Amino acid sequence: MRTVHATRGLVDGLLDFAREAEPEAVTIPLATTLAGEFAPDLPPETPVFTHFYFPEAGGAVSAVFGVDLGVPAGQTQGRFVSHPQGRLELTKADDLHGTVFVAVAPWERASLAAFGRDGRKKSLELVDTDPPAESVDQPR
Predict the structure, then answer these.
(1) CA-CA distance, 96 to 127, in Å (whole number)?
(2) Element (H or E) spanning 119, and its range?
(3) How far is it, in rounded angstroms, from Cα 104 to Cα 84?
(4) What are the tens digits of pLDDT across the range 7-33?
């Protein structure tokens, strides 16, 4: 069983999204940062889930043209899905990625699990540090 790493802040934020969306389900693309950039207790090449893309971003264009402009192509290594009335397992209806985080009510850390594309549960280890700050460069 491969271990998946995620920041505690990301997990708490995802659970908040699910809680606020209930009874609707949410699906949120997730991105990683290499541990070497911010988590000295892990091997530097370890991918850590640190960021998400807002689920509404690019929604209008996607609805009209079928193109998701809210998420840069190839930039997400995982996905978060909530199952408001479901079980803590990966289903055929979920948007699949290499790693899928699934959460169920009552939207607590204990009601969240990570799965591989094959549906097998992975070990989830939370990282207690913040990822490096990102900034958007202003054109000159």
Answers:
(1) 24
(2) none
(3) 6
(4) 999 999 999 999 999 999 999 999 999
